[in-house]
User: Fold this.
Amino acid sequence: MHVVTRAIALLALTVVALLAATAQAQPRTKVTLTMGGDGLQFITQHIAMRGGFFAQEGLDAQTLDVGSGPRQVAALMGGSSEFSLLGMIQIVKANAEGANLVGVSTAFDILDIQIVLSNDAIKKTGISESMSIDEKVKRMQGLRFGITSPGSTTDTFVRTLFRARGLDPDKVATIQPMGGGSNMLAALEKGATDGFAWGAPQSQIAAVKNVGRIVINPFTGEVPEVRNVPYLVLVTSRQTLEQKPEIIRAAVRAMTRAMKFAHDNPDGARALVRQQFPDIDEAVFNRAWTDYRKGIPASPVISQEQLQNTTNWLNITAKTPLKPKYEAVISSDFAQKAAADILGK
Assistant:
């Protein structure tokens, strides 16, 4: 069975390679998209890039890791990036502050941020897997947590964990900006932090290296305030959407093709994503893949419910309640058309 699975994956990759080679021969438009770290949550983007789906849609897409969501927002608003995968919360927050960002496609439908604690912190707090989320958070008081940057999705996750349970995060914890997951893992290994908020592969690597382990995991559904809250969507500025609609249309179609490929050929999709993380231990990757493939959207259309769930979560810590209108922060035309053309939906 393992041989058959590998053969199917290789066949799928061969087809993808042929499509990419054909696309390479056509003139393509250069575009830049940013990433806010180096985690597995960008899985749909990795499939679109390595599967040649951006190229198939006429785009020469280059990626740049800027380390956090707020920096991605700055790149989009400044015009140095045409579109990017960005935390859903960043669209809502940016528009509330007067920035015209717009979500055009889904990208990853599960908030994957996990809380990893060092072995010493786990011993100190006495946190165990069987404890309720309320008890875990109560015991995390006094700890130092690594996040990407202030205002990021990782920052919001840590803060809402405390706020939702009546605790002021600025008084009961130390929250330290560190950039992406690799930086957070390195800090944990050196004892510079007690834990961090991030996802795969660094959260799994911590366990394999025996320097810590995941103590809070949204994939299990244990955090009620983030159930059915999506993480990443494809985002552009309203100005870019108006001035370069064909580029955004092509990007949405590329992401939709990646979604379809992932659901039709899971082994081929796994092989593509594995290429992005060649140095990760096989056991670590397999464990992460089991969870993360669940977050690949079945449709590129961002729903009203997804926006509402995200807003409810954000309002846990918002000083002034946010009330975004769907039409103001989401442009669904390209996604609906791509879903009809590519997915038959």
Q: What stands out?
A: Residues 2-110+229-343 form a domain with the D-Maltodextrin-Binding Protein; domain 2 fold (CATH 3.40.190.10).
